[in-house]
Amino acid sequence: MVHDLEPVLDPADRTHATRLAVVRGELDTAPSRIGECRTCPWWEGWEDRDGPVEGCRGRLVLSDDVSLVVGGGQVGPLRARGMRTVADLAEAGPDRPADWNGEPYSDAVLRARAHRDGEVVVPKVARPTIPRADVEVDVDLESHLDDGAYLWGTLLTLRDGRPLEDEGYRPFVTWSRLPDADEGRAFAEFWRWLTGIRDRAAGQGRSFRAYCYSRAAENGWLLSSAGRFGPEGTLAVVKGVPGVAEVRRFISSPLWVDVHEAVATQFVSTSGLGLKVVAPVAGFTWRDPEAGGEASLGWYRDAQAARGVERDAGRERILAYNEDDVRATRAVREWITRFGLSRRP
């Protein structure tokens, strides 16, 4: 088989010549933000022998570069139409540039306007909504890498004011070193409590919904826990753990609501749509200034290794962080509801 390389040789030569010119300092370059910038050591600047050097982020902000608000593959089509700054895109009309790909063009324009106006999260629909219920449970899990899910945190809210069970935060947790059958015990208690709340609400003629923020993690560990500890468990069979089919029925039902999905389909953001970004916009603040998924991994490892008072303090820190996560999830969905009501004519 013969491949004709003639059509690609000239472009390859031009690209090679350009790179050589950059290395030799013969060609000026300018930064443009792409996905890899978030982990690049030069993004925020660095210390040189002669002092601090401004990173790419500072240079892009100074020039109001359009790459600050769109993906790397969308910069070319915009620049081809003469839109080189965020301000240019914010003032753009509805006509989409040629070769545009990825998110809707209108979302990019809206994000540029939010960036220009100093906003973080703005709606892209007239009246944002999210399903609500008389009885609501927010859920957030904590796992350690692929070893297992050691904590299922819940927050019960009774919107109709009728008694059912004490409202508030409930953790279902194991501190055994993972993997361990006690993880199945904690999951069984969580599942028994959650479905019990659901069934009692239904028996009283009250609506019920459970919420999480980005269902990928919760769904993955719900199914994994059922598969490892359910009736046909691959690790151990633990009484009270449901089968995979029962879990699938629940997570595919309208009773299980992904708050992140509701945000992503109705809002755009200049800083992503993670819970740590959106919840502060909704007015929520974490008690721990270091709160975050990566930090919690370290807290868990430290709590496992420690003894006595230090161990107990580490566990309490994890529980407080998990409680704040479920409260942040509730704050976001309540904010969506308020936002939608405030925009009605």
Please explain how this structure is put together.
The protein has 345 residues and is of the alpha/beta class. The protein is built from 12 helices and 9 strands. The strands form 3 sheets. A 5-stranded mixed beta sheet has the order 6-5-4-7-8, with helices on both faces. It has a two-stranded antiparallel ribbon with strand order 1-2. It has a two-stranded antiparallel ribbon with strand order 3-9. Helix 11 packs antiparallel against helix 12 (308-342). It is globular. The termini are far apart. The mean pLDDT is 93.
Please outline the helices and strands.
Blueprint: H1 6-23, E1 46-48, E2 51-53, H2 56-63, H3 72-80, H4 86-90, H5 105-117, E3 121-123, E4 135-144, E5 148-158, E6 168-173, H6 181-203, E7 208-212, H7 215-229, H8 244-251, E8 256-258, H9 259-266, E9 267-269, H10 275-281, H11 293-305, H12 308-342
Parallel strand pairs: 4-7, 7-8
Antiparallel strand pairs: 1-2, 3-9, 4-5, 5-6
Helix pairs in contact: 6-7, 7-8, 10-12, 11-12
Unreliable runs: none
The order of strands across the largest sheet is 6-5-4-7-8
> Which percent bin holds the helix content?
40-55%
Helix/strand structural class: alpha/beta
Overall spatial form:
globular
Count of DSSP strands = 9
- The succession of helices and strands, N to C, reads HEEHHHHEEEEHEHHEHEHHH
What percentage of the residues does DSSP assign to strands (E)?
5-15%
* Distance linking N and C termini: 68 Å
**Mean pLDDT reading:** 93
Largest sheet: 5 strands, mixed
Q: What integer value in Å does the Rg equal?
A: 25 Å
Number of helices: 12
